């Protein structure tokens, strides 16, 4: 099982911005912890889309994007609301990862591809414990 995180920034002003830094930090924490999930061949790629001066999101919320049964890969896209980019960003990103796992599970199941949602949610919970201070956490 592999969990990848990426971002699409809608303008140059977003490079090294708070939201860009928060996504990068989350990516690093997931990368450190995901080695424990090696062995399962499915791949979940969660891409955060941030509106900017060049391009704006043409969707809201979270959606499935591309799925390859051959590569056992699913991309989930998350539109980052402008009002969250500087407030409660970390909680939003963690919650979005949890939602992405829940959205991905039936897609992989219908395709007959092994997908260990429980292990991924456990990994995300472990990341959350380092990424969000205890006082700021909310139960999901």
Provide structural commentary.
38% of the residues lie in helices and 22% in strands. With 140 residues, the protein is an alpha/beta fold. Strand 1, helix 1 (18-33) and strand 2 form a beta-alpha-beta unit. Helix 1 (18-33) packs across helix 2 (89-110), helix 1 (18-33) crosses helix 3 and helix 2 (89-110) runs antiparallel to helix 3. The longest helix is centred in the last third of the chain and has 22 residues, at 89-110. The chain is globular. The two termini are 23 Å apart.
List keywords for this structure.
single chain, 4-stranded mixed beta sheet, about 140 residues, alpha/beta, about 20% strand, 4 strands, about 40% helix
Strand percentage lies at 15-25%
Oligomer category? single chain
What about the largest sheet?
4 strands, mixed
Task: Give the domain tally.
Answer: 1
Coarse morphology: globular
Report the radius of gyration as a whole number of Å: 15 Å
N-C termini distance: 23 Å
Mean pLDDT: 90
Order of helices and strands: EHEEEHH
Low-confidence parts: none
Helix content percent band: 25-40%
The strand count comes to 4
Going by helix content, strand content and strand pairing, the class is: alpha/beta
Number of helices, counting only DSSP H or I runs of 4 residues or more: 3
Largest beta sheet: strand ordering:
1-2-4-3
